[in-house]
Amino acid sequence: FNPSGSFDPEPDPAGFSEESGDEAGEGPDSVDVPWRLSQRDGGCIAGGEPSKGGAEAIMRLLFDCVEGGGKDCDVKFLFRGARPLHAHKCVVKARSDVFRTMLGEECSMREAATGEVVICGASRETFKLFLRFVYGLSPAIRDEELAAVDGRELWTLSCMYDVEDVLEIKGFLMGGIDEGSLAAAAQFAQDQEAPELAAECERRAPACLPRMLDVPHGVTHGVLRALMRASRVSELDKIKFVDRIG
Fold this sequence. Notes:
This protein is mainly alpha-helical. 47% of the residues lie in helices and 6% in strands. The chain has a three-stranded mixed beta sheet with strand order 2-1-3. α5 crosses α7.
């Protein structure tokens, strides 16, 4: 699978091993604007003390195997230049129709036979956070881990693998849009034709735009104009904004 949602029946596993460590105004094919998250992103559902019992405690115990593996893990996710992540087929198949098909006993795909899935278009850090949602856990992680996550990848993974909590993942991402991530999120919304994300960016524009100090390279003039229209600020403030971001 790749982040565009297309399917590659025979991904090339070469280079994947446990030891392996635009100008503004151009079209979406030429832009690459990472949507970086901060600790405030999705803060409405992050944090809190873990449950001491019940289903969440069980899922936390299972998720502890994701990083280092274990005898009960029977599926491995491979990344280029990074250590693999491990998981339990029974969990990922129960939470995703795509994984259920890909890893099913009657499936003739390579993944079903080997228990190995090559992940393209998403970093190890982003996919690990994605797995937290798959395991039904809150996305409360350390600042340095969250800073390495690309919101574009997380959004795409939730759609591509058709996970049950796709709305929760999207809510997590949209709930944390601030002045530091607004432009990148709006650009991604335009590129991927995601109306719910575009609407949320426009809703947050009045509060975020006055505090925005710069704009990531690759955000188009059209996206910035749309945010300025949605911000409903005065012409003077618009001029100040343009001057501020250069």
